[in-house]
Amino acid sequence: MVGTSHPGNVGSAARAIKTMGFAELVLAAPQKENLTTHPEAIALASGAVDILEKAIITESLEQALAPITLSFALTARERDMGPPVVDIRQAAHEASHHLCLGHDTRTAIILGPERIGLDNNQISLCHRICHIPANPAYSSLNVAQALQLAAWELRYAYQLIQPAQIQETPTHYAPQEKVEALIQHWEQALIHIDFLNPAHPKKLMPRMRHWFNRSQLTQEETDMMRGVCTQILKK
Length: 235
Fold this sequence. Notes:
The chain is α/β, with parallel strands linked by helices. It has 2 domains: 7-165, SPOUT methyltransferase, trefoil knot domain (Alpha/beta knot, 3-Layer(aba) Sandwich); 176-234, Helicase, Ruva Protein, domain 3. It has helices at residues 7-19, 39-45, 49-54, 61-65, 88-99, 120-124, 143-159, 176-192, 204-215, 219-234, and strands spanning 26-28, 56-58, 70-74, 85-87, 107-110, 128-131. α1 packs parallel to α7 and α8 packs parallel to α10. Belongs to the class IV-like SAM-binding methyltransferase superfamily. RNA methyltransferase TrmH family.
């Protein structure tokens, strides 16, 4: 949950994920302090206080996504440019299979602030845009309600996974912090060879970011690309 300001939504979110068997709630850059200990949050958690007590609080979305290998930005608004778009059922299916590809894979559903939702910069940090097919004339969902729907879809999809589908030889996907480091390194290399003009960058780096995130890089591929950047910068 990014930029959260209402303790009631935090408590309701804790209850929503616990009912579906999940336990990790992350608050990225919350707008107020002590949201997890607020009386309203505790009341609406309704028995899920343990989720509130273990909630992770980070200063930014970037920090929250650092260990994540597949992330879904939940939004109702269409975007002119961004990651690939899936609906919540497709997202749940993809997330469930992703978790079977390696022991270090981690997925996340990202929700924005109550009033304005996720902005374009925040969405650009995610691998997929995800939406809930709702009434086109009134698609606004409370964040806790949206999280409840997402958690149910994830639980249902994961229960359908058969043991035989779990990959014996795991794929080591790069966590987002390593991909972000590659993107910064790549930008330096592009400037070095005059492919990118930092004074007039246009939309080159956002497009590059979407390309890298869409590609679902492994750790080996990320290290390889970092090596390419290092050689470029030496010339």
